[in-house]
Design brief:
The complex is a heterodimer of chains A (341) and B (159). By secondary structure, chain A is of the alpha/beta class. Chain A is built from 11 helices and 8 strands. An 8-stranded parallel barrel of chain A has the order 1-2-3-4-5-6-7-8, surrounded by 7 helices. In chain A, α4 packs across α5, α6 packs across α7 and α8 runs antiparallel to α9. Chain A starts with 23 loop residues before the first helix and ends in a 26-residue tail after the last helix. The chains are: A alpha/beta (341), B mainly alpha (159).
Chain lengths: 341, 159
C-alpha cells in the first residue's frame, strides 16, 4: 500500500486534515481499512540488528508494530529504544508506555523523545504488576494510571502543555491508544471503562487476547449500544497457542487472559497442536472481522512471531493490500516455509 | 481491616447518606473552623480521619478522598493505585492480579457504586494522585475549598 505523498523512509507523512498524527496506522484506520498490527519481541540485547531482524518478518503484513514496554514485568530493550530504531527505517510503530516503571516526569519526557524520533502512536497502559516478572523485588511506581496517562498525552498534543502547565515549543503529534480487556471481571464495567478511556482521549484500543467469540460479541454489543465503535478504533488481540500445555500455562500465569476449556481441548486433541493453534488463530481473525465495530486485529504471537505473516495471509483480512515496509523495493526474501495453507 | 472494608462496600448506600450529612455539618461549621485556623486544625482532623476511615475503608490518607466516586471502596488499596477502574489483570473469580487473596478493589467499587444514589460518578475520569497531599485531611480540604469559594480566594489563602 503506497500513499501518494509517500516520503523518504524514516521521515514522517504529512498530517492530513482531521488526523492527529503523521502515522500510517491512523491513515489506514481512517480510510476504513481493516488494520493489522503485531507485537515485536524486544530483544535482551543492545544490538540494533536484533530489532531489525525481528521487525523484518512482519514486512508487508502489518500496518504498525507494537513495541512492548517491559511486558510481563520482564526487562527487555525499552520501547523508546525499539521504536527509535524502527522509525529510522520508516516502520510505523506503536510505542507501549506502562505506568509501572516510571513516574509522570519520566513518562512525559519519553513521550516527547519518542515523538521526536518519529513515533506516531502510543499505547497507554497500566502495566502488569511486578510480581509476575523475574524481578518481583522491584518498586512498582504506578504514579499515573492508564487513564491519566491518556489525558497527559492528549494534553501535551492538543494544548501543548506538560502536566505542570509548562508550555511545549513543539507538540508531540500522536495517535493515542489504550488497552481494553473485555474478558476480565467486572464484565459490566468493561464497556463503561472503554467509554472512560475515550473520554480521556483514546483514539484506538487494542484488546487482550480473544479466544472467546461469544464473550467478545456481548462486549461489542454494549460498545455499540454506547456508540463507542464510532468514536474509537477497536483492534482485537489474537495470537496462536503452541499447545494445550502452553495454553494452560498462559491461562494460569499471564494476568487477564481468558482461554475457554473448549480451546484447550481442541489443542489437546490435535495431531499437530502448533498447526492447530495457528488454524484456530486464523479462524478467530475471520470471525472477529465479521463483528460490527471491530476495525482490525492485533497479533501477539509470543515466541511464534514467524507465524504472523502466514496467519494474516491465510485469514485474508488484508484483501490484496500490502502494508508499507522498508524493503518493498528490494528483492524479496526467500519464502518462509508455510505451515498454514 | 479487610472484613470491615468489604462491609463498607456492602453498605455503600448508608455510608453515602451518612457522609453527605456529615459533610453538610462540616461545611456549616466552616466559620468556626476558620476562626480557629485551618492550619491549627490540620493535625487533629487528620488524626481523627485516619482513625475513622482507616477502620472503615483501610484508608491510606492520600488526602484527596474519592470514596464517594468509587462505591466506598478505597482505590489506594489497589496495588497499582488505579484511580479510574480495574486493570486488565483481574482474575476470573474477581480477585486481584497482584494479591490473589484480596477481592479486586474495583470489582468491589463497581458493586458499591450500584448501591449508591450518586453511583454514576464512577464514570468520571479522575486525576492522578497528588503526593503532596499525602497524610493530610480530606475533610478539612473540603471545608477549606468551600471557605475559599465563599471568600473567593485560593484554598491556601483561606487561613
Amino acid at each position: 500500500m503506497k500513499f501518494d505523498d509517500e516520503p523518504v523512509p524514516g521521515f514522517q507523512l504529512p498530517i492530513l486534515p482531521g488526523h492527529s498524527s503523521p502515522g500510517r496506522l491512523e491513515r489506514v484506520l481512517r480510510a476504513g481499512r481493516f488494520a493489522v498490527t503485531a507485537e515485536i519481541a524486544p530483544p535482551d540485547s543492545a544490538d540494533p540488528n536484533d530489532v531489525y531482524l525481528r521487525a523484518r518478518i512482519f514486512d508487508g503484513y502489518v500496518d504498525a508494530i507494537n513495541a512492548t514496554d517491559g511486558s510481563g514485568a520482564h526487562c527487555h530493550m525499552s520501547s523508546v529504544g525499539v521504536c527509535s530504531l524502527l522509525t529510522r527505517e520508516g516502520y510505523a510503530t506503536i510505542m507501549q508506555v506502562s505506568c509501572r516503571d516510571k513516574n509522570r516526569i519520566g513518562i512525559q519526557g519519553d513521550v516527547l523523545g519518542a515523538a521526536a524520533m518519529g513515533v506516531a502512536n502510543v499505547l497507554c497502559l497500566t502495566g502488569d504488576g511486578v510480581q509476575v516478572g523475574d524481578q518481583p523485588e522491584a518498586m512498582p511506581v504506578f504514579d499515573l494510571d492508564c487513564m491519566s496517562l491518556l489525558e497527559t498525552v492528549t494534553l501535551m498534543r492538543d494544548e501543548g502543555r506538560l502536566r505542570s502547565g509548562r508550555q511545549l515549543t513543539a507538540t508531540p503529534k500522536l495517535f493515542a491508544g489504550a488497552a481494553a480487556n473485555p474478558f476480565a471481571p467486572p464484565y459490566e464495567f468493561r464497556p463503561a471503562r472503554l467509554a472512560k478511556k475515550v473520554a480521556a482521549g483514546a483514539q484506538f484500543v487494542q484488546t487482550q487476547y480473544c479466544f472467546d467469540i461469544p464473550m467478545l460479541e456481548a462486549y461489542m454489543q454494549r460498545v455499540r449500544d454506547l456508540g463507542l465503535h464510532e468514536q474509537v478504533y477497536i483492534l482485537v488481540g489474537v495470537g496462536p497457542l503452541a499447545s494445550a500445555k502452553a495454553a494452560r500455562w498462559v491461562r494460569e500465569h499471564v494476568p487477564g487472559v481468558h482461554i475457554p476449556d473448549a480451546v484447550i481441548d481442541r489443542l489437546a486433541g490435535a495431531q499437530n497442536p502448533k498447526l492447530e493453534g495457528r488454524k484456530l488463530c486464523v479462524e478467530l481473525i475471520q470471525q472477529i472481522r465479521e463483528i460490527e465495530g471491530v476495525h482490525g486485529v492485533h497479533v501477539m504471537a509470543y515466541r511464534q512471531e514467524e507465524a504472523v505473516a502466514e496467519i494474516i495471509d491465510a485469514s485474508g483480512v488484508l484483501e490484496e493490500r500490502v502494508p508499507w515496509h522498508p524493503h518493498r523495493d528490494t528483492a524479496p526474501e526467500p519464502a518462509i516455509e508455510r505451515v498454514v495453507s | 481491616m479487610y472484613a470491615v472494608r468489604r462491609w463498607s462496600v456492602r453498605h455503600a448506600r448508608g455510608l453515602e447518606v451518612f457522609y453527605n450529612g456529615f459533610e453538610r455539618a462540616l461545611i456549616a461549621l466552616e466559620p468556626v473552623f476558620r476562626r480557629i485556623g485551618f492550619a491549627r486544625l490540620e493535625r487533629p482532623f487528620a488524626w481523627f480521619e485516619r482513625q475513622v476511615k482507616g477502620f472503615l475503608f483501610d484508608c491510606r490518607m492520600c488526602g484527596q478522598c474519592v470514596l464517594s466516586r468509587t462505591g466506598m471502596s478505597c482505590p489506594m488499596n489497589c496495588p497499582k493505585r488505579l484511580r479510574n477502574g480495574p486493570c486488565g489483570g483481574v482474575r476470573p473469580d474477581g480477585m486481584c492480579e497482584v494479591e490473589p487473596n484480596m477481592k479486586c478493589v474495583w470489582v468491589d467499587a463497581w458493586e458499591g457504586a450500584q448501591r449508591m444514589r450518586d453511583g454514576q460518578t464512577i464514570h468520571f475520569v479522575d486525576s492522578p494522585v497528588d503526593l503532596t497531599l499525602q497524610g493530610h485531611s480530606s475533610w478539612l480540604r473540603v471545608v477549606r475549598a468551600h471557605s475559599a469559594q465563599r471568600l473567593d480566594t485560593s484554598p491556601d489563602d483561606a487561613e
